[in-house]
Amino acid sequence: MDKTYYKEKIEEQLKDEYYYREVNKNLDRKTMREIKRLISKYPLCTTEKEKDYIVKFEEKTSNFYGLPKIHKSMEIQEAISEQNSSYIKLHSPKDLKFRPIVAGPQCPTHRLSNFIDIILKPLCQYVPSFIRDDLDFLTHIPTSVNFNATLVSFDVTSLYTNIPHQLGLEAAQFWLKKHGNIIQCRFSVDFILEALKVILQNNSFNFDGKTYLQISGTAMGTKVAPTYATLVMGFLENKLYQLVETTFDINFAEYMKQQWKRFLDDCFIIWTKGKDELDIFHNLINSIHPSIKFTMESNDIKLPFLDILITKTGKNITTDIYYKSTDTHQYLNFHSCHPSYTKRNIPYCLARRVCTIVNDETKRDIRLNELKIFLKKQKYPNALVNKGIEKARAIPLLDLRDTKSKSKSEVLIPFVNTQNPCNPDFYNVIKTNLPILRDCELLKSIIPENAIIQSKRQPKNLKRMLTTAKFNGNNTSTYRVDTCQDTRCGMCDNIEIGSKKLLKNGKTITPNQNLNCKSRNLIYCITCNTCNECYIGQTGNSLCERIRIHRQHIRDPSTRMIPLSEHLDNCGCGIFKVFPFYKMKDPVLTKRLSKETLFIQIFKPKLNGNNCIIE
Question: Could you give the dihedral angle defined by the CA atoms of residues 326, 330, 331 and 337, in that order, rounded to the nearest 10 degrees?
Fold first, then answer.
């Protein structure tokens, strides 16, 4: 995608002052202070471990990016049909829209959002329209309907960004008071609502070197957003049922409660009244709240919902699998570097999905034959594909659609390691030697038999290596080192502020991220105040903790472990500056040590190791 085109499209969204406001400073520290005040205000609502989880981590500012809605662009769909290829060439389509995503896996509110999501998620089961996924939706579709029934779907326009904060908090309070008995009593309503308020009002992010604050709605990317949106829509639907009863009748209102189904912002109903009444209903739902608007699509014969195509033939309802026009069926190639068990299971899983959704045998056979063609293009052996399809065919439809609940008593311990075909088979070694641990009575009670399961972590693929959520239109680094500005830090005086550091030997160091004295897992440079010679070191702890240790070694000769401490004491009179410059992605000591060695070789600091000058 053209970089200038992408930047213009995103900036067009961010210029909407109803939703976003540009701010002139980073808000992460202010947000962390608010979260800490919240935890202090309600000390009985969280355990010590929960408090540590919510506040004790190294925060990082979120990044904003846009996901192109290629399936909603008519220009792209026309290009697909004209070019008839898996890859199409189209320069800057005018009707392409972007879904706003705030990527903040380490942002200040991320852990609090996850914590509140865990608390609120059980409430979703009490929302009458709530469906978990397409399988859950299939269990609610009737097999027959009135001859004159119409298939209707509604879509909420930009739901996440259009939920006013006050409406969201009112909806959460409504469900908490109505079904608060399922929430642990230690979580007070006030604590949950104030936590939600902190999450909603502190959604700040970066784009192209600028900082923005979302002032309306919730971020698509924060953990609590789907649960929050579900509860808000459920709250509005309660009002809708009352309006339907007043506008139509009580019987139709009851029908609505049973048949109106929704997955986040996508709604579906089989309409049993006339077209005029449908238009009245459309106007009715658009009058529930001024910020929440619905678009409608209806058809007397067939209509897609999620990845299901619902078809009405007379009075009978059948379901088929639905592929968008932009779906290229680029399934995982059989020769890709993935675990063999993953690739062996793909034909069965895809075939099972077809057999679950398609309830007409003729259509099912057609879809399975199409699946064979798709998988053959991805180099899957015919025998493996046929075996997977036959295995899926053998399962009755009722069993396929049965939503089995997971056993809570089952204890499983996942063994997770990164997929690499060059690594030895650790899992089988562990499995073979597990009985040795079970010889101990205490460990036997902790580790059940056959409790360890294998799980593979995906290594970085080319996409993850070449792309990032952070957008920088100028291709120049704007990272800098700053103090944490915490009055209790005591180490800020030792931090060398700036976007680069010039060494005595003429070489320049630039930081790879915004860093301060609270940053962790990094490489740093110490400069002697008198001779300006440098030392390069590494730490997995926060930089201020490492500086504190250096100070202690300078003051107390009995604790010294490296020649640097004596040099800084004798030459620098205990005064030195620290410039952190390389933030590691993985908190692994061996990787940090390797990177430290590399930088020592590049910059050749005289205060490292045997080269250290003792004054």
Answer: -140
